[in-house]
Write a structure and sequence with these properties.
The protein is α+β, with helices and mostly antiparallel strands and 284 residues long. Helix content is 24%, strand content 18%. The protein has a 4-stranded antiparallel beta sheet with strand order 6-9-15-10. It has a 3-stranded antiparallel beta sheet with strand order 3-4-5, with helices on one face.
């Protein structure tokens, strides 16, 4: 086999390996494998696109391609990526499993009829947590020896503790205007610059679905943080309904609570001494 054929064969193997890795990542890792790495507190949904879970899986279940086994080795890790080697092939795994990118454009902060705070994110790359932070994540952060299998949203941390948690993740507590930007459909008049905002995160209407498969409220039974409730146009969950959420409001810090309401997208209320879920964001 000449050098060109060898190179093509190598590229073909790498592409096949990448396809297998991608499929495993999308489908999630079963607890049978996660338990071997003491990661049994994950579930299939929360392990999808999880760098930690994927590495655990392939370290305990070598990747097989064309009757040949390929061992996984972690080369290095940084804030954004995990660099691995499978056989002699190198891959980069992005650690953005549970974050969604906020497109660069002009936005309007505040509730439906508020137009005073117009801003843009042209000079920053913004990523927002798709889900609420869980009790499991907080226990791990607190270095607890016994980690409970608790994927419910954490509501026990104080505001300062929430900020510290996000800071330790190299992120920050989700800010109000970024949540608004990720919640409202981007509808801006190119001539007047007016930004239209509607109460529904799905379409140009103020009518909100009462379907428990779409948006969660208190009548819907047991809450599941990883179920796709009220998914916004950028792909973050819980922009309407679900449970109360604490945010960082730079415009008016007193209004730091997004209520679990179906009435008004982007509406904030007084959050002093109120417990709520939270999530983090990153800006580079």
């Amino acid at each position: 086999m000449d050098l060109e054929k060898k190179a093509m064969a190598s590229i073909n193997i790498k592409l096949k390996l990448a396809k297998i890795i991608s499929k495993t990542w999308r489908q999630g890792i079963s607890n049978d494998y996660l338990n071997k790495c003491s990661l049994g507190d994950h579930n299939t949904q929360s392990s999808r696109c999880s760098t930690e879970a994927l590495i655990c899986f392939y370290k305990n279940s070598p990747l097989v391609l064309e009757n040949k086994k390929y061992q996984l080795k972690v080369l290095k890790e940084d804030l954004i990526n995990t660099y691995i080697e499978i056989g002699s092939y190198k891959f980069i795994l992005e650690k953005k499993c549970h974050t969604r990118f906020l497109p660069k454009r002009i936005y309007s902060a505040g509730a439906v009829n508020y137009q005073k705070d117009i801003w843009d994110n042209f000079h920053e790359d913004v990523y927002i947590d798709k889900y609420y932070i869980t009790n499991k994540e907080v226990l791990l952060w607190n270095n607890k020896l016994k980690i409970k299998n608790d994927l419910n949203p954490n509501t026990s941390l104080t505001l300062d503790q929430k900020k510290k948690f996000c800071h330790d993740k190299k992120m920050k507590l989700l800010q109000s205007r970024y949540l608004d930007a990720a919640s409202f459909l981007p509808l801006r008049d190119s001539k007047t610059g007016y930004i239209y905002k509607f109460n529904s995160p799905f379409n140009k209407t103020n009518r909100v679905s009462r379907n428990c498969d779409v948006i969660f409220d208190k009548k819907c039974g047991v809450f599941n943080n990883y179920k796709d409730y009220a998914v916004s146009w950028v792909g973050i969950n819980h922009v309407l309904g679900s449970i109360d959420e604490i945010i960082d409001n730079k415009i008016d810090p007193r209004y730091s609570l997004k209520q679990a309401s179906l009435l008004s997208l982007g509406r904030k209320v007084l959050g002093d001494r109120v417990k709520g879920a939270f999530r983090c964001m990153a800006s580079y």
